[in-house]
């Protein structure tokens, strides 16, 4: 089964390619913005200490940022999933250039991440994609991150974050926050991959999404195939962006509830349910019809 079909995104993508008024904050590495398969007119930079465009195309940071951007904002005729190319993608680079090419999931300190989240919220993002992990966490720094996530709550900005690829049971300062949707990578049969972090808080308010054999854009060549929780996150982010494009007046809490309520009662588990974009659409469609009748 193909990744988009696994999470029932195909029908929603046939309804809409997204709208520019729905803005996604991409906190990641720099992006090869001149890539022929990216919907370049909808990419905008939020200035940071690292440039939003790639200075070295083969760096880990550039490969990672371009790959995730391709899942969200590639043109629909490309080899990438190209979930919401007509939404606005705000590029907030956070990873420094890394020549090693060994780390499949870059990380940022809590303070760096907190500043990037606040910048995206203040620039008008409606949903933020965090395909990253935390480096050098400390109680003091994690408090700054919690305050940044609370800032997103107050402004109605949904935050979607990678659960992590250490294959452990537990959580982080990101995935523990009740407003964040943590995402676990699953294989093409919908089962969590061995590398994905799991946990009770992740299962309680998170989702699983495709994180195996996903093809998207490379910064140098036309395509690249990768896996992991970083790869899974933009499937959830993209689904949220498309749902908001179809229901632009829906409040953030309603969008978040529709996406995460794939089952009414969650069993005691450390693994979250699979994203079901079509069910989320039907929930919002029913709510929208009732609102019109009221």
Index terms:
single chain, 294 residues, alpha/beta, Rossmann fold, two-stranded parallel ribbon, 15% strand
Describe this structure in words.
- This protein is of the alpha/beta class and 294 residues long.
- The chain has one domain (3-293): Peptidase S8/S53 domain (Rossmann fold).
- It has helices spanning 3-6, 10-15, 60-73, 110-122, 139-154, 200-205, 229-246, 252-260, 277-293, and strands spanning 23-28, 43-45, 88-93, 107-108, 127-130, 133-134, 158-162, 180-186, 207-210, 214-216, 224-226.
- It has a 7-stranded parallel beta sheet with strand order 2-3-1-5-7-8-9, with helices on both faces.
- Helix 4 (110-122) packs parallel to helix 5 (139-154) and helix 8 (252-260) packs across helix 9 (277-293).
- The longest helix has 18 residues, at 229-246.
- The protein starts with a helix and ends with a helix.
Topology diagram in text:
Elements: H1 3-6, H2 10-15, E1 23-28, E2 43-45, H3 60-73, E3 88-93, E4 107-108, H4 110-122, E5 127-130, E6 133-134, H5 139-154, E7 158-162, E8 180-186, H6 200-205, E9 207-210, E10 214-216, E11 224-226, H7 229-246, H8 252-260, H9 277-293
Parallel strand pairs: 1-3, 1-5, 2-3, 4-6, 5-7, 7-8, 8-9
Antiparallel strand pairs: 10-11
Helix pairs in contact: 3-7, 4-5, 7-9, 8-9
CATH class: Alpha Beta
The coarse overall form would be: globular
Ends distance: 41 Å
Number of domains: 1
Number of strands: 11
Contiguous uncertain segments of 5+ residues? 99-103
Find the structural class using helix and strand composition.
Answer: alpha/beta
Percent of sequence in beta strands: 15-25%
Looking at the structure, the CATH topology is Rossmann fold
* Helix-strand pattern: HHEEHEEHEEHEEHEEEHHH
How is the biggest beta sheet arranged? 7 strands, parallel
Radius of gyration: 17 Å
- Can you give the helix content as a percent range? 25-40%
Give the oligomeric state.
single chain
**CATH H-level superfamily:** Peptidase S8/S53 domain
In CATH, the architecture is: 3-Layer(aba) Sandwich
Mean pLDDT: 90
> What topology, given as strand order, has the largest sheet?
2-3-1-5-7-8-9
